[in-house]
Amino acid sequence: MSSEADDFGSNTKSLHFLLVPMMAQGHMIPMVDLAKLLAARGALVTFATTPVNLARIQTTIDGVTASALPIRFVELQFPTIDVGLPDGCENADLIPSAELFVPFMNALSLLRRPLEAHLQDPDLTQWPKPSCLISDNLQHWTADVARTLNIPRLIFHGPSCFFLLCDLLINRHRVELEVALEEKSSGSFMLPEISHPIRINKHEVTSVMGSDPSWSKYMESVRAAEESADGVLVNSFVELEQWYFERYQQATGKPVWPVGPLSLYKEELNTKETRGRVSSIDSKILFQWLDKQKVGSVVLVSFGSIVRNTIAQLMELGYGLEASGRSFIWVVKEVEERQVLGVEEWMKKFENRVEGRGMVIRGWAPQTLILEHVAVGGFVTHCGWNSTLEAIAAGVVMATWPHLYDQFLNEQLVVDVLKIGVAVGIEEPKLHDLWDDNEMAVKVKRGEVEKVLERLMGGGEEGDERRERAKEIKEKARMAMEEGGSSWKGLQDAINYVLESRQK
């Protein structure tokens, strides 16, 4: 166990945290980091998820075992076939069609029975019963488990506090916002209760799944579970969005603890390489290539684990990267997944044309390490909060290309509030983009790709100012996670809250 854990006394060592993540990479990855941080403070940690998700982080599990951190990884059987899901469909990025998204989300509550069976296992006597349950906010059923155990339940939120506050206010003012929508069929309008302009568009008020009663019922359960929670952990830091932290805490009436950026958890290089899952590329080859590039000259292009671009859009993006003349790393998962006729041949020809200047990674990439490399100067991102925060922690400016969910509001935080990014220009999300059968659909043409890369990587005085702001925020992020920093204190305050709850 690390020496850090010894600084917190025997009280923390008697605590046992039960963590239940959402089965999606953007939610799983920071929750694993949180488990390690809690264990490093001396607490016992049980991390409960399904077989497929545990297999993805096996290298991380092996590292935890070798380091003697007190984390127990528990396998919960997920009855996919019983609810009409394909066998092994245990993560959001494995859902094969839009029609199965809501059934997958509704099936999450079926994890309750195997979790409770585990907690009743007589072989667990060497560990105390859980002192606190920390669950992803989407795992609403855990509220009942915490009540049965008579322990505090804390929510772990994946998105930014900026998004959380906006989302809360949208739900609070939904009726008047819908009236405003009817009067103003297009464009944007301002969000109530906020003193400065925040643009809200139709898609933020009316979900792309708003007409599905099953989805509405699921979200009602999520909100009810949020209201019953004892506190909130957010993967962010106060210095990044202080005003939003303060207002969100006021709006919820609950303690809200910053604990991020969790991607800055101190680990060995080889452990960071497999953060999330094993890399699809030999890291030695990747970093040898990066080491040869000029400082700040490389653009990373990656859209996370769930977003899927159409084949025609991939080609337009590729042509834009080629025409830009910039060095780049492009993370592509669609080609091998879709196997559309002629695309593999196109990709091979593309790789030959950009050989030496560009690198294509087909599958999972060690994104955190790539962003932290001095050669990387820009990031074309879907604005998932994990990716956004990793770029912020690395001091890398962003070109924002949101697709759905919280990504459009995260874009507004990056571009308009923090002023460390440029917008590609996407205006409307579509859930069905994840499973779009129209492989010829294109939202961003090659010329637009070329222009946004020029703004991102060049940009004159404006670009220099963006990069300088990004460097300043990077330092604040690192200070937040250091001992005595705001997020370091946030985690300790959450631990102290659980200690006090147990004493009461």
Automatic annotation (TrEMBL):
Single annotated GO MF: UDP-glucosyltransferase activity
Keyword Transferase: yes
Pfam families noted in UniProt: Glyco_transf_N, UDPGT
CDD domains recorded: GT1_Gtf-like (cd03784)
Start and end residues of each Glycosyltransferase N-terminal domain: 18-262
Superkingdom: Eukaryota
Assigned keywords, A-Z: Transferase
Family (UniProt): Belongs to the UDP-glycosyltransferase family.
Designated name of the protein: Glycosyltransferase N-terminal domain-containing protein
